[in-house]
Amino acid sequence: MVLLPRQQLRLALWFALTGALSFWLPDVVIHIAYGNSFDSPQVRVITFLLPATFLCAYVAAHKFAARRNFSWLGAAMLLGVWLTGGLFTALAATTANGGFAGPDGFWGGVLFALLGALPPATFIMATYDGSLFALLAITVGVPMFFAISLSGLPLPFRRFPK
Prior knowledge:
Helices cover 75% and strands 0% of the residues. It is mainly alpha-helical. It has one domain (5-150). The longest helix has 30 residues, at 5-34.
């Protein structure tokens, strides 16, 4: 099946949204659940939970992408995570009187969210959010997984044609 450029773009946007939601939504839920009592135990949970949910979404989306001959799944999902980082960290910060509930009000949160579309800002915001190690794990892990799968190494999860 050959996809037209418009179909490729639509799939890329859907996979970017899938990556963003699978990574950032558990973070926002944990911040909502703990609010001002967010501390290091929650950071440890986030560090393992966010890459795990991203990996589950990647595995589920991989089957869908393979049927549609979409080969840039990991890149699209990572792009979604990095471009929406500011929005989701602003939402998470709102639970602790920051973000949209900060001293600058709604427009301060909007500015915070828009700045997060820049990768260095997402990196900095993830540091304050507590999700930095999770973000680094998927940012380094996805390309490494892709490179290993292309290397031809006999991995247990890899199926070779007969």
